[in-house]
Amino acid sequence: MTEEAKKERIEIEVPPKKLTITHAHCPNGCDLMEESVKIGGYASVHVRVRYKDEEGDMYLDPRYGSFENISDIEIPEGEIVELFCPHCGQSLRDEHERCRQCSAPMFALMLPHGGIIEGCLRKGCYEHELRIVSGEELLSRLFENDTLASFL
Ligand SMILES: [Zn+2]
Ligand SMILES: [Zn+2]
Hints:
By secondary structure, this protein is mostly beta strands. The protein has one domain (3-151). Helix content is 9%, strand content 38%. It has helices at 3-8, 136-142, and strands at residues 9-12, 33-39, 42-51, 54-60, 69-71, 82-84, 93-98, 105-110, 115-120, 128-133. Strands 1-10-9-8-7 form a 5-stranded antiparallel beta sheet. Strands 2, 3, 4, 5 and 6 form a 5-stranded antiparallel beta sheet that branches. A hairpin with a 7-residue loop joins strand 9 and strand 10. The longest helix has 7 residues, at 136-142. One zinc ion (ZN) binds at residues 99, 101-102, 104, 120, 122, 125, 127. The site of one zinc ion has 7 residues, from loops.
């Protein structure tokens, strides 16, 4: 990784369920939070899921590191799905990333302040990461106090 890239991008390891996503958007800016469907007491992240010729709604656990979800369609373990924005239909697949565990495509959710959360599109693969992409000033603030929560 170049010096420049190091400055621009940071990956954070977060203990499971310590952080909860409260603002997630599709790449076009649609709000994906669903207050009416709660998982673990929190508003879930609503996406459309497609597997082969089946399509349905899926609600993701907003607690980072948790993989509970509610899905309309049955997806066999190990299969790769496609995720879309339920509002504008935009694919949530990140064309630039591959899962480091299983090399499946990844999906990305946009967070406030330039953060991105990514997950593997393979059912049953638990690889995902939180990336905060922002200026140096924001980064230094991030490590003061408990401000990480404000990025979610
Ligand atoms: Zn959208
Ligand atoms: Zn994977």
